[in-house]
Automatic annotation (TrEMBL), chains A, B:
Ranges spanned by the short sequence motif 'KMSKS' region, renumbered to the chain: 229-233
Keywords, comma-separated and alphabetical: Aminoacyl-tRNA synthetase, ATP-binding, Cytoplasm, Ligase, Nucleotide-binding, Protein biosynthesis, RNA-binding
Gene that specifies this protein: tyrS
Protein name per its UniProtKB record: Tyrosine--tRNA ligase
EC number: 6.1.1.1
GO molecular function list: ATP binding; RNA binding; tyrosine-tRNA ligase activity
Amino acid sequence: MIDEALREINRGCAEIIDNERIEKLLKAYFQEGKTYTVKAGFDPTAPDLHLGHTVLLQKLATFQKYGARVQFLIGSFTATIGDPTGKNATRKVLSKEDIIKNIESYTTQAFKILDESKTDIVYNDDWLGKMSAADLIALASNLTVARMLERDDFSKRFKTNVAIATSEFMYPLLQGYDSVYLKSDIEIGGTDQKFNLLMGRQLQKVYNIKKQQAILMMPILEGLDGVQKMSKSLGNYIGVSDEPNDMFGKVLSISDELMWRYFELLSDKSLDEIAALERAVKEGKLHPKKVKEDLALEITARFHDKEAAQNAKEEFDRIHSKSQIPNDISEFSCEGPIWIAKALVDCKMEPSTSQARRDIKQGGVKIDQKKVSDEKLELSSGEYLLQVGKRKFAKLKVK
Amino acid sequence: MIDEALREINRGCAEIIDNERIEKLLKAYFQEGKTYTVKAGFDPTAPDLHLGHTVLLQKLATFQKYGARVQFLIGSFTATIGDPTGKNATRKVLSKEDIIKNIESYTTQAFKILDESKTDIVYNDDWLGKMSAADLIALASNLTVARMLERDDFSKRFKTNVAIATSEFMYPLLQGYDSVYLKSDIEIGGTDQKFNLLMGRQLQKVYNIKKQQAILMMPILEGLDGVQKMSKSLGNYIGVSDEPNDMFGKVLSISDELMWRYFELLSDKSLDEIAALERAVKEGKLHPKKVKEDLALEITARFHDKEAAQNAKEEFDRIHSKSQIPNDISEFSCEGPIWIAKALVDCKMEPSTSQARRDIKQGGVKIDQKKVSDEKLELSSGEYLLQVGKRKFAKLKVK
């Protein structure tokens, strides 16, 4: 049981620091029912979330399944700090009210994945807002400038002479201090957050917290193209608030390879279930499109509901069946005008004109992808794509 | 009058930034009686002050003569900040009480130079202690890391991989902010403080103070050797609490060249008075030693009193007259034993033995630097240094 939990927790991770600590926490949960805390930080801006953002939420949900309380940390502190110079136009000062409103919209989405009863939403301005300049200076004494400049983004900016405000050096320290204040057992974040995540571990040590947080880093999710990271600006994203039809259709559009990646990072299916699906596909027992539909249904149902997902699937089928025209359609020609029922028989699509008339009445016959309703229709000269039911096609040239 | 004041203020400065502002402040003082503020920062540690420290105080005193109120700023804020890591063993956390005690000892010395009635002692933890972490971050947003690393000492340490704590980046900002809070019109400091002094000017601008502080930088005072900076560890210093005799003697020990430097930076004499002395020495009308004695008297009287200074001079003369033996002393020889009075006549030091006897009676005759009291003394064989009064010497070899 612990092994399975650990496997699910490790699933899809880019890097884990102190997995041993995670093992011990799981053991204590399974053997003594002890819960533990997993911290994840979120911006108090209200972006339109896309699936890329939910990779982290999925992992948090997994932790909740195995005894974790989630510390859903809102980075509200920096958002409330003004820039006295007014230079930094990009940093909009948010009021606490703005932030709470943004976060409500955020959590409404997040709680489609997270268990609300096992989630504590905390705002770091509750403690950082009370911190004095003296405290901050004492905090800053724990890190050297050289070490700070090792951080990837700072290092790049420093080398290319892109300005770094000294205030920016404070943010990793504050994020780290959050872990001190919250006494987090585990923190999770993106791989791009490694420096800041380690800062929490380091500062917990400085502030005499006996056991430092384990760190779990999730990879960046690829977008629909399977190459670049999912992002709004690249247009390769599935938005959490996309309409069910869009959501379903976008999942179906990904490659088979990317599908397994999405299963790993986004599906609630267990690793064993996914492995079974993979086997079945490999052995030809299951069509990959069927598996992809299941994933699309799961994801669509998550952010809407099962019925909406099912409707989306049907709508998708309806629309896309249109274009399910085989490439090798038999071609016929005849003198016109010709009665539609006779034409269908001539083209070997119907056994008899009476059967043809019945099918027309039931809406089973299309010309150029439009349903035929008039059973007496005469085709004059021209070219026609005839269709009976879903699968029978013929091209007819009427002279 | 303004011109003279400006000359005295400019006197000895290493660098002045915005001298125009100083001119305007002086004009407003002389024409409208408007006072203005001059800030200088001091450490709340209680070092044994030496004359090097008083260069700044002398300049402040000059400003006070010309309408300034001195903001005697105690950097008490950082001294009260602890280092949570305990790494920084050199930084002793001082209590407010410690600081006040230290500063009392400091100002007791300083008020021998400064006019207490025109001095406001201010402690920066009074406002920095109330500053929040958020305020500090906003403050820090005004300066880039690159600019901070341009500071001489940071730059050197960064290049040679000597650790700089990120907290150290905060100190120049805080010192600058002091000028914002105090709305200082002028700040003075050592040349090594240029970066921090400019920070005050820059931040005043950011915080919308219409007229930024002028800056006046004083050079580092050379020690008794005239080469290296005056410092306790080099042993080339004159301590403010040195005994009058030491103080007087140390000043007399400096070179003539250094004497003029000390006049410029340490004397209350006006530039005109000093120029007159220089002329007189150049023209041979005044012995440089006499001028040096005046300087020694002035400095000793400043930290003790006139009487103590005068006593020190006399004591000095008494002791040092011993060694005032010319290099080119005439040598004589004679058969012994010989009567002292006759010996003095033979050596052409006395016109007659009766005069010699009178001088001996009055204590005006020395042998080997010891007074002779016995007018009947016979010199047996040996070598003797004979002296009559202060200036007459002879060497006598008695065979």
